[in-house]
Design brief:
Layout: H1 9-39, H2 45-48, H3 54-66, H4 68-77, H5 81-100, H6 104-128, H7 133-157, H8 163-186, H9 200-212, H10 214-221, H11 225-256, H12 275-281
Length: 285
């Protein structure tokens, strides 16, 4: 059996920062496992309410725990949640520029860490007692901006390859998943508006992680295969996210079948679905 030749020293040297970062992150997994064994796994309400495998919830809780020091630092310094939200979006913009110019690995890491700040702003807002509907609206809106910036950058990067269609399809399907949720919640069917597995956290991981690790694919599979791996991940993301959008849309449509017709000129805010409004109209209440 012919031995596989080792890569050139300069290639390994270039990969050292990436390998060191991966090793650092992986080294925290056993620490978190010990913490869970001793004190129990943390229970973030958003994660606990998700319909997903237990191992994925474990990894999400690990990532939230990993960002605990950043959260505590923001609280100690009095950083506002909106400032964290703008910082997250700004990092997504920087990631988009890097990705558009072909720096897939650096852009992927910047995107992953910027998106992770989205975990922090809401927790800081609740800890400070400053959570508000205005803040939630700003957060959700800028999340969509960040995603579209990254998908646009990947579209530019893959403009001369078939992967451009995967990037465009991923962008479109992600928008539809988010729109279906927002519209479904506005129409009063919150449970159906959250069905499906490919939500923002999953989309960020499936977009950013292959980009971040693209040099490893180049190292293991040959030069140029890092881009192929990213394009393939975008194709998978587009397909699974499209299925989520279809499943969510169908669930919302089924929940709204048989609803009273809207009056002429009435906007579809469907007050008849508002539990508080129904209680107000109930005799004797």
């Amino acid at each position: 059996m012919t031995p596989v030749p080792l890569p050139a020293p300069n290639t390994l040297t270039a990969l050292l920062p990436l390998l060191a970062l991966c090793a650092l992150l992986l080294s925290t997994l056993p620490i978190f496992a010990v913490r869970c064994a001793a004190l129990g796994r943390p229970r973030t309400p958003y994660i606990a309410s998700r319909a997903m495998p237990a191992f994925w919830k474990w990894f999400m809780e690990w990532w939230v725990w990993l960002w605990g020091p950043v959260e505590r630092a923001c609280l100690a310094l009095g950083v506002s949640p909106n400032a964290i939200t703008f910082a997250s979006t700004s990092l997504a913009g920087i990631a988009a520029v890097l990705l558009g110019f072909g720096y897939l690995s650096v852009g992927g890491w910047v995107y992953l860490f910027g998106a992770s700040l989205d975990l922090v702003d809401g927790r800081v807002a609740r800890a400070q007692g400053s959570a508000s509907k205005a803040g939630a609206f700003l957060d959700s809106t800028l999340d969509r901006v960040a995603e579209l910036l990254v998908f646009a950058a990947l579209t530019v990067h893959f403009r001369d390859t078939v992967a451009i269609y995967a990037a465009l399809a991923a962008a479109g399907s992600s928008v539809m998943v988010s729109y279906a949720r927002a519209r479904g919640e506005a129409l009063g069917v919150e449970h159906e508006a959250s069905v499906g597995g490919m939500q923002r956290a999953e989309r960020v991981v499936l977009t950013g992680l292959p980009c971040a690790l693209s040099p490893l694919f180049d190292l293991l599979l040959g030069a140029g295969n890092g881009g192929w791996a990213v394009g393939s991940a975008l194709g998978v993301l587009a397909a699974v996210t499209s299925l989520t959008a279809l499943r969510r849309g169908h669930a919302i449509w089924r929940a709204l079948r048989g609803a009273p017709a809207l009056e002429p000129g009435e906007r579809a805010n469907v007050r008849w679905l508002d539990p508080m409004r129904r209680r107000e109209k109930r005799p004797g209440s």
